[in-house]
Amino acid sequence: MTRLILTLFLCIPFVGFAQQTDSAIVSQLNRDWIASYAKRDTATMQRILANDFLQISPIGTKFDLAGTIRNVGSQEMTTIAAIDSSSVRVFGNSALIVSYTHFSISSKGQTTNGRNCYSDLYIKRNGVWQAVSGHVTLLGMK
Hints:
Elements: H1 2-39, H2 42-48, E1 49-56, E2 62-64, H3 65-73, E3 78-91, E4 94-107, E5 110-125, E6 128-141
Parallel strand pairs: 1-6
Antiparallel strand pairs: 1-2, 3-4, 4-5, 5-6
Helix pairs in contact: 1-2
């Protein structure tokens, strides 16, 4: 019995370490996702987003994986965004990230700046974290 308790006591820190690692992985995926817009980096987006990905835009438009990739690769506009703050909560093989960003969108010689908040749901499948869902809320434009 003492041996069982000792074994359980020694394993507890590793459970916390695994969640910290998962949290760090999801945070990095979030940073990569945001950076991919300015670079029009569709390969990074395809790595991050699951095949069954679905996102809801600030105006309620649904984008699946193909639509999201198409928007990122679009030559019609350039989007540059930066993360102001984010938090990750890991629940086993699921993780929820909530982030606030500011962004700049340039199209046809005009630039618009704004702020948004979004939540993305990541699922760990076969040991790999991928985003399966996102929802964006527009906080303001200038």
